[in-house]
Amino acid sequence: MVAYPGKRRTAIVGVALSDCGRVDGATPYTLHAQAARRALADAGLDRSAVDGFASAGTGVLAPVAVAEYLGLRPTWVDSTSVGGSTWEVMAAHAADAIAAGHARAVLLVYGSTARADVKAGRRTGDLSFGARGPLQFEVPYGHTLIAKYAMAARRHMIEHGTTIAQLAEVAVQARANAALNPDAMFRAPITVDDVLSGPMIADPFTKLHCCLRSDGGAAVLLAAEDVVRDCRTEPVWVLGTGEHVSHTTMSEWPDFTVSPAAVSGRLAFGRAGVGPAEMDFAQLYDAFTYMTLVTLEDLGFCGKGEGGAFVEKGRLRVEGGALPVNTDGGGLSAQHPGMRGLFLLVEAVRQLRGEAGARQVRGADGERPRLGVASGTGGWFCSAGTVVLGRG
Question: Where are the domains of the chain?
Fold first, then answer.
């Protein structure tokens, strides 16, 4: 095992989800607290052991407010906000802080009532992200988040011959994995035809090419190696991380077929001293099917333009897949309460510990995985954070 560069190694010692899916009546604070309590219980640590804290809310959900609600008084805090990749980036920052001796145990926590808020009329569900700053030049043309991803997918199809059926395969295989997860929001099998025949949302994306909207929260507890011995769980070590911020205005994105994971992945694998071919699984942000396909390319699991062929023939499935991807069903089928990157880390840890139940990934020898990668994407391929994890 290659140690994370620094004075002390960092391990993930506790993970948990709050109630997820349809959670009417809860507040974001409730979901933060549920996930935090469960992650601490998972690790077997009291909250008094936590001296570092990170969350990504704003206003009333700013880290100082959430920490107070949780009864924490951290001496290290992070409120990085770069979209869905926030949590992989925060995990990297936490590992750096632990390695440098600035913290011993850092809690990352998230909670959102995105679905319930829309249902109750507390938010509109608009995904234009406002019209100030650089976005003012795109919003008049109806360029919402979904449209930006759709444009990128269409460019990949034009340049590399990727087909809409290949993109649909990503959704079909995510649903097959979700069928093995009793906590997934949608578990009924779907076919490529089901995906292709659905209502059009933003060409070429029909409804099933797009993530669901749910409520939910997650928490991950990272700790220094000297804290690990006090934990009840097997440690999952942070071996390498990488982060990259690319653009926010579409006109400043050099190539719609290349995501920032091309940089964050190279950094993470290089720092870990391992390569994509050694990964037993991948947990990838999948707000849309194209995200999975292009992230696989950019992390090096296949060549540029080869993602369409790569995802065919069940390669992403837990059962019989050569590279199980989004083993819980992902944002396409399991849950997606907003900034889903923290859920990727939770699932990766559960797989490495052998705690994933029916969806557990196993090698040809029947053993559980030794190495895995989680890679989050934020905005419209604006940012990426990649974390390589392994067990001792």
Answer: 10-118+211-391
Amino acid occupying residue 158: I
pLDDT at 59 over 50: yes
Residue 218 in tokens: 């997650």
10-118+211-391: CATH topology: Peroxisomal Thiolase; Chain A, domain 1 (3.40.47)
Residue 66, token pair as written in the block: 């959430």
CA distance 322 to 149: 27
In sequence order, what are the beta bridge partners of 105? 223
d(CA 287, CA 149): 9
Mean pLDDT value of segment 220-224: 98
- Residue 1 pLDDT > 80, yes or no? no
Residues 303-330 have a mean pLDDT of: 97
CB half-sphere exposure, 5, CA atoms < 13 A: 10
Nearest to 331 by CA among 287, 361, 269, 383: 287
Backbone angles phi, psi at 88, to 5 degrees: -70, -35
C-alpha span between 42 and 368 (Å, rounded): 20
DSSP 255-292: -TT--THHHHHHHHHHHHT--GGG-S-EEE--SBHHHH
Token code pair at residue 191: 């076919």
Whether the bond between 134 and the residue before it is cis, its omega within 30 degrees of 0, is: no
What 8-state DSSP symbol labels residue 22?
S
Give the largest CA-CA distance in the chain: 56
Q: Are 290 and 149 within 8 A, CB to CB?
A: yes
Task: Look up residue 104 and give its two tokens.
Answer: 């011993």
| Closest C-alpha to 55, from 93, 81, 92, 27 | 81
